Structure formats: C-alpha cells, structure tokens
Amino acid sequence: MILDIGFETMPREDLEAIILRRLKTTIDRVYSNIPFYRKKFEENNLSPNDIQSLEDLKRIPFTTKKDLRDNYPFGMFAVPMETVVRIHASSGTTGKPTVVGYTARDVNTWAELMARSLAAGGATREDIIHNAYGYGLFTGGLGIHYGAEKLGASVIPVSGGNTKRQIVIMKDFGPTILTATPSYALHLAEVAEEMGVSFKDLKFKYGIFGAEPWSEKMREEIERKLNLIAVDIYGLSEVIGPGVAIECHEAKRGLHIFEDHFIPEIIDPVSGEVLPYGETGELVFTTITKEAFPVIRYRTRDITSLNPEPCICGRTHIRMNRVSGRTDDMLIIRGVNVFPSQIESVLMEMDAAEPHYQLVVDREDNLDTMTVLLEVGESLFSDEVKHLQNREKKIATNIKDYLGVSARVKLVEPKTIARSEGKAVRVIDNRKI
Amino acid sequence: MRAEQISVFLENKAGRLAEVTAILGEAGVNIRALAVADTSDFGVLRLIVDDNAKAVASLKNHGFTVSKTDVVAVEVEDRPGGLHRILGILHKAEINVEYMYAFVQHSGKNAVMIFRIDNIADAVKILQENSVTVIDGDKVYTL
Ligand SMILES: [Zn+2]
After folding, report:
1. Which member of A19, A178, A364, A380 has the greatest number of CB atoms within 10 A?
2. B76/B131 same-domain check
3. Strand A357-364 relative to strand A427-429, pairing
4. Alpha helices (H) along A121-181
5. Whole-number average pLDDT of chain B
6. Beta carbons of A384 and B44 less than 8 Å apart
C-alpha cells in the first residue's frame, strides 16, 4: 500500500522542484546556525546563494563521520537544546559515538517516513507488528515503533533478546508483521524449531529487515524458514534512522529513497567524483527537511548504486540497490577500487551455497597481487580435478571481466579461513605501504 | 554392477592424507583402494572402503568436503596387454574414461581396476559382451 500517494508517486518534475526549494532552505539554515558548515562554505568561497540548482550541490564539500565526532556531542545541532525533544547515539565501536537530535517536528517526520516504509513493506492498520529491533540509544526500535503507531497498527515493543519468550509471544499474540535484523530473524527461526514451533502455524505475512547488510540468498532463506515475504529497509541515525529507504513488497528490487526528504548521490570514494546512475560507489545523503540535525553531503561509507528506472509499484522515488559493503573494506589493487562484496557477487554466481572466501593482497616486485581463497563446500566439489581447475579459471576470468583486476584463485578446505567471532576475516592485506 | 567411490577434497600440504587415514582408522573403516590426483594447490583423494556411510560421516564430522561417485570395478588379466585390451574395447565404443586406478587386492588371479566413466550402463554392457568380468558393487567392498 502507498501511504502518501501525493508525495510517493509525485511526477519527477514536481518532486525536483520541491527538493530544490527544501535544499535551499536547509543550506540557509545550516549556514546561519552551524559554525562547522559556515566555515566549510567560507573556506571554499561559497555562499548559500551559489546553490541555485540541484547540480550546484556538487560544489559543497562532503561531511564525514570524523566531522561529526570532532563536534561531539552537540556541535552539529542546528537548533537550541530547548527545542530538541529526543537524542539518539550510534554505538561507538570505533571511537566516540555520533550523537543526533530531533525536534518535535523531526520526530513526526521520522514517524511518517517509517509509517510509509511499513506500508510499503506490506503493513496496514489491521496488522500486529512484532518489533524485535533493540530499543534504546540505537534508532531501530523506537524508529519502527513510532512508525507503527503513526500507521495505526498494533505494535508489540518486544525489543531484542529473550528469544524463547519472543516465540511464545508470537504463538499467543499472533503478530502478522516481523521487524528485526535479518540475522536475528534467522535466529528466531532456529529457536522456534528447537521449541517445536513451526512458522507455518504462526500468522506472519511480511517481514521488514535491515540495520545490517544481507544478501538475496539470505532473503530466500528467511522467506522459506519464516514463511513470510521479506523486504529490505535502510537507514542510519546520522540521516534520521530507519526509514530513509524501503523496498516495496511488490517489486522487492531495490529500496525507494524518500527523496522528498533526502537527496542521494553515489560518489567514487577515492576521488569524490559523483558517479552516474548504475555505477557502484559510496552513498552520500543530504537531508532537506530535518531541523535539529541536518547533514549536507554526508558520506555513509555504504557501498551501493542508484536505479532511476520506474517501479511497478507506482512510486516515483529513485531506488538504491541493496547495500553490498562498506568503503572501510575497500582495497585499491593496482589503482583499481575493489570491494570484497564485488568479489562475493562473482563467487555467488558460481556456487549454490554462501561462499566462504578471503582476499589476500600482497606486493611482489612493486606490483599488487590478489589471491582469492575459496573454501570448497559440497556444492562446489567434484571428484574430477579438471572440473575444479575449470572453476578456479572461471572465477578468475569473471573477476577480471567484472572488476578489471587479475586475481589468483586458490581452493582451500572448509573451515580453514580464519573467523573472528563467527565471521570470516575477508581481507588480509600484507602490503607494507 | 556399479560400486561407490568416496572423493575427498584435500589441500596440497603435508599431513592431510595421513589425517584422512587416521580418521578412517579410528572409525574402523578399512580402505580397499586409494588414489590421489593433485595439482600444485589441491588434490582429490579417491577411496573405495568397506563402509561408505561410516566413512562419509566421520570425514564430514572432521570438516572434510566429501562426495560420492559411481564407478565400475573391472577384472583385468594379470599379463602384458591385459589393461590395453579393456581400454581398447571402451575406446572403440567411444566411452571416455575420466580416470582409473588399481585395487590393492586381486580377484582370484586377476587384478582389479576401478574406472570412472560417465556412461556406466553402456560401459558395463560392452565389457560384458566382450567377456570382461565386472565385479558387483557389494563384492568390491569386501574383496
Ligand atoms: Zn516499488
């Protein structure tokens, strides 16, 4: 269901006029209210008046996670604290957390976008939503919660953890929509099975999963094990939280970005150059309606591409493809940007099972070399050596074709690639630079 | 007429083959025939054992990638040209042999060879028409 027909299906021309108007207002506000942005503008001899078209956005420098940290905790707020009604923070696993604030209007905007998202994912006001995202400083739990209430659905604020009790609630309350991280969804399936509960006997119709990267294979697995239709949701607290983009359940092919609130760009993470539609790079967002915590050209470090093709659902908002990785993981091999996720896609095409692989990068005689170690599972194995050798060759050829870099492929025994906390270590870079 | 062979993926590094034989020994599995085909990086170990189910389970438990393949066990006269005659028969019938290896034990006074062939049914028919003895799968494991 399309919740906000007016905005979500607006003809592009009208939409772009609104985007530009809102962008200009935002630029004026950050320039007047946030010293960080004013300084950036001045350093680049820019004034808010220089931004007269959407093209002009390119002239403004990027904002990075480091900029947010440097202004910890409240230096990037555009309003006085008396008008801030909510504060969230990202986990500070790699340094200080990033702190974000919301005015009453921001909280309402967020709830509306989350309500749109839930509707796009199949929810209606008749539904009962089992919300297993964590509640707290993390935006997941409360973001979904407010959206569910805005939609008029019944929300069970079950949060994360205590999985056995969650299964009992699912049995007794009969929720019809599940919201969780995809890995927790699979964990729920495992625990239910241990408890002798079949998802076939539960009432779930749709599941809305996000907050971590996942794959099409994982979607198939979740849909099969949980007996529901699974869609992808995207968001990050620096932009607003969940509800930045959502996959429609009709197409399940890419996530519509709510462009009446956020402007997406894809850039080359090294040169900063804006890339055309379809090309893979780093996703950058500019918020155009937020009051307390606007961001201009914020580098998400998420890797994806944009798809402007019209969608069967009727929404006119552009789609981003599934996030396939992080720029932090990017390697530069002989001057070519390589994301482990791109190698993973090549491997996935070759094998029915989830690939377990590792990229080992070395420098020999001043030349970068990359070796792809691939664990041989049952679906890849053959009793004939030449078949295995052909597979190695085919993978190397595909990597060369798709990524433009040469790689050596080496088949290894299962469980030989080092894992850290259950996750495979994807990259070993032995270059001494 | 077909026998079942177990194939195991091995990295080409010291001690991997011994690891497999140790696991099978501990599981009480007797190896009847064995061959390794390898490259500089990896190898495929092919085994005929007396208890396939037990062998596969114990190897999988130890994290090895294992598959099962149908092969044929053929009696080969233990004299010059014995093997050549059989290959000739198959070649004339345009049946391609992917690989083959010898069995440890003899069957009476004949040697036994394992053949990996795509079209087993045709191969067995042709061999029998030329009065070559193809050994029953069940008997191979306990020869
Ligand atoms: Zn759509």
Report:
1. A178
2. yes
3. parallel
4. 139-151, 163-173
5. 91
6. yes
Structure tokens belonging to residue B39:
């490259």
Q: What is the pLDDT of residues A187-232, one digit of tens each?
A: 899 899 999 999 999 999 999 999 888 888 889 999 999 999 999 9
Contact (Cβ atoms closer than 8 angstroms) between residue A314 and residue A9: yes
pLDDT digits (tens, 9 = 90+) for A63-114: 999 999 999 999 999 999 999 999 999 865 556 789 999 999 999 999 999 9
Could you list the residue range(s) of the whole structural domain that residue B128 is in?
Answer: 70-141
Cβ count near A267 (within 10 Å): 20
Q: Find tokens 């779930």 and name the residue.
A: A204
- Beta strand B42-49 with A427-429 is unpaired
Max Cα-Cα span within chain B:
45
Domains of chain A: 1-327 (3.40.50.12780), 331-432 (3.30.300.30)
A–B CB contacts, 8 A cutoff, strictly below:
54
Total tally of structural domains belonging to chain B: 2
- What separation, in Å, do the N-terminal and C-terminal C-alpha atoms of chain A show? 53
* Closest partner CB to B65 (pick from A381, A389, A410): A381
Tell me, in angstroms, the distance from the centre of ligand 1 to residue A313's CA. Answer: 4
